[in-house]
Amino acid sequence: MEIFFSGSIRGGRDDVDLYAELIGLLEQHGTVLTEHVGIEDVETKEREAGLTDVDIHDQDVAWLQQADIVVAEVTTPSLGVGYELGRAVAWEMPVLALNRPESKHELSAMVRGNDAIEVAEYRTVAEVEPVLEAFFERTR
């Protein structure tokens, strides 16, 4: 199974370590196409590779099209994550959005109110494991 993981990059990197942990869990279920989201200095690496915004967009959309499912950590608001979720919903892909309710940011109604996106609230990574198990079981 090919998995598209989405998390904030330019919207804020406070959760990069959490993203890396979640990617580790996801790798138990398949290939994570976007494991770079869990790398601390991803923007520096993109610049060093000479990637333009167009390159990044096209690459991410290609990975999204290739994926079987989408899992997004949506606690940190991100225009890019929202864009990716919108595309995934339009393409009728299974989407799981993970959100920590104690955040200072309230989850957008455009995500929480969309019945094509399964939203799961959690406080610890350990709480995510059974959520992922159930999600993968339903989407196989």
UniProtKB/TrEMBL annotation:
**E.C. designation(s):** 3.2.2.-
UniProt keyword Protease present? no
Q: Where does substrate bind?
A: F4, F5, S6, G7, S8, I9, R10, Y19, E84, S108, A109, M110
Query: Is Hydrolase among the key words of this record?
Result: yes
Residue ranges crossing the lipid bilayer per the database entry: none
Q: Which organism is it from?
A: Natronococcus amylolyticus DSM 10524
* EC primary class: hydrolase
| Pfam families the UniProt entry points to | Nuc_deoxyrib_tr (PF05014)
* Keyword terms: Glycosidase, Hydrolase, Nucleotide metabolism, Transferase
Q: Do you know which InterPro entries this protein is assigned to? A: 2'-dNMP_N-hydrolase, DNPH1, Nucleoside_deoxyribTrfase
Quaternary arrangement and interactors, per the entry? Monomer and homodimer.
Name of the protein described by the UniProt record: Putative 2'-deoxynucleoside 5'-phosphate N-hydrolase 1
**Record function comment:** Catalyzes the cleavage of the N-glycosidic bond of deoxyribonucleoside 5'-monophosphates to yield deoxyribose 5-phosphate and a purine or pyrimidine base.
Q: Which reaction does it catalyse?
A: a purine 2'-deoxyribonucleoside 5'-phosphate + H2O = a purine nucleobase + 2-deoxy-D-ribose 5-phosphate; a pyrimidine 2'-deoxyribonucleoside 5'-phosphate + H2O = a pyrimidine nucleobase + 2-deoxy-D-ribose 5-phosphate; 5-hydroxymethyl-dUMP + H2O = 5-hydroxymethyluracil + 2-deoxy-D-ribose 5-phosphate
Q: Which GO terms describe its biological process?
A: deoxyribonucleoside monophosphate catabolic process; nucleoside metabolic process; purine nucleotide metabolic process
The organism's superkingdom is given as Archaea
Q: What GO MF terms are annotated? A: 5-hydroxymethyl-dUMP N-hydrolase activity; identical protein binding; transferase activity
Record family assignment: Belongs to the 2'-deoxynucleoside 5'-phosphate N-hydrolase 1 family.
